[in-house]
């Protein structure tokens, strides 16, 4: 029992805690749980445009969702009750397919042909004051109303200015969850898995519906539920029933479910002697398994496979090629409409430059994959670094469907502690010109069929979603999920526009906020590059956890290609990885004029300089500085930019609710401290080789190298 005094003290404590919570979280506080469905209050709506009713004469679970979404959003936006009509009338929004007579009359047939199964048309008929949202399917109509609502909340003039025709760049727009079956998330920085496997199939996390709504609002139409380092158990009957429950929930939103599979499943689950893809018993096992999946989930999307990579099993274990492995699964999935996404993330501790290995393994297989196989290729040749040149496989496999994989979760960009908007990273990659077929052979155009034509298309993003209240750990990390979805829909969109869109829907439409924070977001990734790995440096992060700087990391017996030294090669002669023709010759994998450009340090863009070259510390940069001085300036610039972002955020206080304001402020303090940590660690360590002074005009390190090395973030 508590003594009287202790209990008094406890009451006082409870009072203080409550009081401080109230003062911290005021009534207009937002916790981030509403994602980009937060701000409906301040949308600028054209004064003459006041739709007040909805006319939908088709029915399906998806049309029901459309009705609910429109009702919910429009009543918030127009602050009135929205009527549901049985026929079209002045001032209504009419949503449907050509089965709706009014829509069939009002929209030219040709439009319906153009938009395919997933596109839509938004047409405002001013004489009748009716807005039509037309599509060939209910799912596409759902995309249409989300686009319409987005425009209402961000740029309403567009709705009345012109007929809008949209269709997606990629057929399959897929999130990859690296969620483990025990509820943890590999490289997840936002809490545990939202699937809550342990509750399924009986109970479904209500968040899954919100997740589906958010994805549908962007046009994301697929989700791989489990980690690429796949636990074979996911294919056990009990687990498949859990998967079915999720698939049923996601279906009305147009989202198909996929699974990562372990290539050794026939041995591990089926007790077979091997998992050789050419073994008839193995094929029979997979066929039976696939049959059982489709019995439960008729629209199951297919498999994602990480094979012969980082210890995962694969066809090479039996002397078979990636193509033989992928095709075996693809042939089995084909009659059901399923696909195989086969990852090209392969490398071994051989003598060969890691940046070349996927190319060496996969390029010779071009043309051997069956037509429902996609090769899923990470944006860069190493591993989701803050900056990498594009993976040279893009453009080099003309006869293979290649799908880009980007990482939304920020494994190498400060987890969910640092503000880094990935729009510029994604678009820099998608707009990279491979020159494979002359100018403008961009990765966007290669992978969306604009160039090589008529293949299955897809794009994947490794999700940053978890059970945290704000879904992604950092409020601004929601923007990375958002920008992935928007680019998967249209890979030509401006990422600055996307940032503005997101800010308006998530915070406020006030230009003072939107313009300032759009600028911060646009510069944030470059700041991370500068304070972590400027000028083409890469993989200087701590061992295995990939957080914080450890350029000195050395673990006896560790794989050399998992150690920073492999990548930076700093010594008294200089720094960088020589991938030019005098080194590993990775430049050779790129088409001209890139090959020559990357090969010559004088022509190589600064951002890739130390990716392709090992250069002396006194190497003269094009701006007249020597390499060491430039490196010091870049690291300092990264820190100064973070300081500036934090100061700008402080000026945003009047626009943002206290809770999100405070939570972002705290993260920004952390980011600034850690940017300084990065700068000091890298400069002090590299200085031991360069022997040169940090320029006096720059801030001096606040740490000592010894202190940082002993800081002990390395768990090994
Ligand atoms: C990185 C990451 C791993 C992940 C792997 C992959 O190496 O650190 O956690 O499994 O990528 O993409 O397969």
What features would you describe in this structure?
There is one protein chain. The chain is an alpha/beta fold. It has helices at residues 4-24, 61-78, 101-106, 109-115, 138-154, 157-161, 207-218, 237-250, 265-268, 280-296, 322-333, 354-362, 423-430, 443-447, 478-489, 495-506, 511-532, 564-568, 594-599, 609-612, 627-651, 658-690, 705-710; strands at 53-55, 83-85, 92-96, 120-125, 130-135, 164-166, 172-176, 222-224, 256-261, 302-305, 339-343, 373-378, 402-407, 458-462. It folds into 3 domains: 4-166, Chitobiase, domain 2, CATH 3.30.379; 172-500, Alpha-Beta Barrel (TIM Barrel); 530-577 and 614-711, Alpha-glucuronidase, C-terminal domain (Alpha-d-glucuronidase, C-terminal Domain, Alpha-Beta Complex), CATH 3.90.1330.10. It is built from 23 helices and 14 strands. The chain has an 8-stranded parallel beta barrel. Residues 186-187, 228-229, 306, 310, 345, 383, 411 line the site of alpha-D-glucopyranuronic acid.
Name a few traits of the molecule:
TIM Barrel; 8-stranded parallel β-barrel; binds alpha-D-glucopyranuronic acid; Chitobiase, domain 2; disordered N terminus; Alpha-d-glucuronidase, C-terminal Domain; 6-stranded mixed β-sheet; 716 residues; 3 domains; alpha/beta
